[in-house]
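Continuing the batch. This is chain 6 of the set; chains 1 through 5 are on the previous pages. Same settings as before, nothing changed between runs. Recording input and output for traceability.
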Amino acid sequence: MSDFPLKTAPKAVEAISSELGNRLKELLESKHIYQRIRVDAEKVLNAVRGALAVPDPTDLKAQIRLGDIIADVVKSGEPIPEPDAVRQLLNLDMIPNDLPNVAEYLTRWLKGRKKIKAGTRRSYEAPLSS
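Output for chain 6:
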């Protein structure tokens, strides 16, 4: 009878133990990753719940607009707006991506002014055209 299996058994046990240790480390690392993902997902879900709690449940138009706002921020990779920001956005009657920049806004505002002196108009237009 050869003692070949007896001599190789400790090495096999050591190899199996090492492999199990590596697998256990991988599992623990993946568990931490999943926990972080779960925590991040819970934060996003809570933010969405907070945003959805803002409009009146009977106001279908506001709920649709809020859905559009949330879809836009998700597409752009931005965070879900806080409830106060949602209130402001719903009151603005605009979707964030539709908001004009300052130059666009001032140009529109200036066009809407009927009673403004020519010199004042030119002084307002000068920074907008440069």
